Amino acid sequence: MTSNLGIDLYSPKEIAEKVENIGVVKANLPLRTMAMLGILAGAFISFGALYFTLVASDASLGFALTRVLGGLAFSLGLILVAVAGAELFTGNNFLVMAWAEGRIPFSLLARNWAIVYVTNAVGALGMVALVMLSHHTDMNGGAVAEAYVKVAAGKTASSFITVFMKGVLCNALVCLAVWLATAGRSVTDKVLAIIFPVSAFVAAGFEHCIANMYFIPMGMLLHAGGVVPAGVDLSGLTLAGMLSNLLAATLGNIVGGSILVAGVYYVTFRQRS
């Protein structure tokens, strides 16, 4: 059926069909391809996190401006994933639509999520190593390093349920960004579609499990190296604190992406009557 919304935009029903078809392709990717694209996605999201932290290190900016500009900067990560091509765990929550329609078995859904999650972590941790070796954190008189520690400490200081709920809201916006980007036909369409939902979740302080695979280890390493920002609670900045955050954020991201976005759109447009 041809969309009546104009040649430059897919309709919501067409987006649902495209997302489902893409999910089938993603679920059947060869292991090497899936793993390499997963590593790239972890690195891409880390570039966005790096860009955000650079903005956050500027104490001359007001609270709201820091959050908004930081969110715009972080959008780089998902733009790279969507346009350059990569496999991101949070965006791949959309595979639920292909599974629900019976086009892929649960085993392929679980395989994709497991491989992509692990390789996203590899990409993020690889970026931690590269950024540490580059001495990027020395910028702004060491304020960048302090910003990393503050961000990581804030994430690990939050309760499990708080991180979970922030994870739900985060991936609802991330998957909506992917949904909107799928509606576009050009690079410009996709970039503009991604910026606002992603910058909104970052500005609001929501929790993205893959971004946290970069933020928290970076903060932990810098803290271990002697970076101690004044007036910051660092008690949660431990391995246990990191694992608790990642578990809560991951579960929340799955609920937000798979149920609140993929599930709702599946019931609306794709469910068999």
Question: Could you give a quick summary of the protein structure above?
Answer:
It is built from 10 helices and no strands.
Q: Looking at the chains present, what oligomeric state does this protein adopt? A: single chain
Name the beta content range: under 5%
Report the span from N to C terminus. Answer: 19 Å
Low-confidence stretches: none
**Total DSSP E strands:** 0
Rg to the nearest angstrom? Answer: 19 Å
Structural class: mainly alpha
What percent of residues adopt helix (DSSP H or I)?
A: over 70%
Which shape, going by the Cα principal axes? Answer: globular
Mean pLDDT: 94
Strand/helix succession? HHHHHHHHHH
Count of DSSP-assigned helices = 10
Q: Specify the biggest β-sheet.
A: none
What would you note in describing this structure?
Helix 3 runs antiparallel to helix 8. The model has no long low-confidence stretch (mean pLDDT 94). The protein contains ten helices and no strands. The chain is mainly α and 273 residues long. 75% of the residues lie in helices and 0% in strands.
Write the layout of secondary structure elements.
Elements: H1 12-27, H2 31-56, H3 63-85, H4 95-100, H5 106-134, H6 143-157, H7 160-183, H8 187-203, H9 209-224, H10 239-270
Helix pairs in contact: 1-7, 1-10, 2-3, 2-5, 2-9, 3-8, 5-9, 6-9, 7-8, 7-10, 9-10
Features:
10 helices, mainly alpha, about 270 residues
